[in-house]
Design a protein that fits this description.
Blueprint: E1 3-8, H1 15-25, E2 28-33, E3 45-48, H2 68-78, E4 82-86, H3 88-95, E5 102-104, E6 112-120, E7 136-143, E8 147-149, H4 152-160, E9 164-168, E10 179-183, E11 189-192, H5 210-222
Parallel strand pairs: 1-2, 1-3, 3-4, 4-11
Antiparallel strand pairs: 5-8, 6-7, 6-9, 9-10, 10-11
Helix pairs in contact: 1-5
Length: about 220
């Protein structure tokens, strides 16, 4: 059994979608409440879903980053555990410094909700091994604060270390170098603004997101 834990914060609204995507890929799924201070035993991966944790008050992801469960998530990641953060989850990962950079207001100041074409920048990770490098995939976005910003030195490191996971073909939000998703240094933490869990069934109009979840499952099978 390969076990995925989906953390739920007040205001999360993509937790069920994310859990379903993991289940369709072959994971067992448990949901974890933000007030818990410990993680369930035997977790293989933790996922932070999209939504508006704590109403996005103060700053997107800032309050969730201080939730009791988040310390356990940080410890899990620092021990080499796999963590996926989608949209608001990406914002939380940046707020905890598990990933570099920050997500700020979209360049045009508008909430964006539509499909976007992404370029898979690397297939050399547990999250992207079922893609081809350079492959173009259709995955929806839904965010107001998805403009990824990072300092020049860190941007160089992300590029040299092959830590950019996805880029937008038509940059919708002003993100630095059109970045849509990045990895941690050990490549076991992935944050991305587009929603792969909304591209896993035929009626979604794209099944491109399923390769991310199946890639991850395959990494545990091969270990």
């Amino acid at each position: 059994m390969t076990l995925a834990g989906v953390v739920v914060f007040p205001g999360s609204n993509c937790d069920k979608d994310l859990g379903l995507a993991f289940k369709l890929a072959g994971f067992e799924v448990v949901y974890i409440w933000h007030k818990d201070s410990e993680l369930p035993n035997n977790l293989d991966v933790i996922a932070l879903p999209g939504g508006f944790s704590f109403g996005d008050y103060l700053r997107c992801g800032a309050i969730a980053a201080k939730s009791p469960i988040t310390r356990a998530v940080i410890n899990f990641a620092e021990r080499g555990g796999y963590v996926l953060g989608v949209c608001n989850g990406f914002q939380i990962l940046c707020e905890t410094f598990l990933l570099p950079g920050a997500l700020v207001r979209n360049l045009e100041g508008k909430f964006l909700c539509r499909p976007e074409i992404l370029s898979v920048e690397t297939a050399n990770s547990a999250f992207t091994s079922n893609y081809e490098q350079g492959e173009r995939v259709c995955v929806p976005i839904a965010h107001h604060d998805g403009n990824y910003v990072v300092d020049e030195e860190t941007l160089k490191a992300l590029t040299l270390e092959d830590r950019v996971a996805f880029k937008y073909l038509a940059n919708p939000n002003g993100s630095c170098e059109s970045i849509a998703g990045v990895f941690s240094k050990n490549r076991r933490v992935l944050g991305m603004m587009p929603h792969p869990e909304r591209a896993v069934m035929d009626f979604h109009g794209s099944r491109a997101g399923m390769n991310l979840f199946s890639s991850l499952l395959g990494s545990f099978v091969s270990e």
